[in-house]
Amino acid sequence: MVPKKPRNDLVDLYLRFRWLLKGLHDLPSADILLLPHTETLLAEIVQAWREEKPLPLHKLLDCEGLGHFNTIRRRIQHLEESGYVEFQGLESDSRVKLVVPTDRALQFFTEYARVIVRSGK
Amino acid sequence: MSLLQRYLIFVLGSAVLWCVFVPLYSWVFVWAEFAPGINMVYLPHGIRMVLVLLFGVAGALGFSLGARLLTLTSLPSGLPNESPTLELALAVVPGLAAWLAARLTLKDWPGRYLWQAAPADVTVIGGSRLLLLAFVSAVLNSAGHGVARLTLGNSVAHLDEHFLAMFLGDLLGALTLLYGLSLGVQAFERARVRNRGT
User: Which end of chain B has fewer CB within 10 Å, C or N?
Assistant: First the structure.
């Protein structure tokens, strides 16, 4: 059987809509965790916190693998505004700010894990 | 499909969407009407933006045509009863404003490519750019309406109030529609992920 040729016009229409959907995802204060880099950053913060070594803000900003200094700072700010992380001071050094996940962030990863477990069944 | 056919489909599709959406919207949002043709939350302005982003000039022509067609029927058109010249101008102004706003705020968007398929690498639009587009098109549209009334209309009373109400209505309408669509898309994607998991 000869496979049907794709309808180029329909493909074009689909791509146009996909382009718009990407823009809609990026609307300010839309769910920021839909942005993959922000999710990676949050995962990094949660991982360090689980190992009982919460990351200080300055160390996170220096992580080149996560992006440019200003970009990471902006993402952390977004995460804080959206209630996914909070800052904690150190008793021994008041200048150090630790970035720790909130219950909301933990809830997000719990949901995530549940979906992965379900899809693996 | 020839290029002309494709262009006509974009124009007619946009016109049909306008002719279906605007009467429904006018019926539901009659309570938000500030003055004839001016609404405090004008969702169709969001539709205009979406059509211009997707289909460019063809989308703009489509909803201008739709607005003109609606004035010929007894359905609510969003256009007040004015002289035919002014009615025509008021149908054309939003199309021109939305297209001009896209030209001013975006370097590249799928609506720019009418006679060919939009390339896959069209620059992704940022959310803040989308909001800027909503703002600029609301300013241009309300200013364009003001100029049209000033030059072609019989009465210029309350022009400033109408400008402000229309600007706010267009901006709020576009934001409501964009955020509504965004939430809808997110809910849909979450549901899809959940269904995959079961």
Answer: C
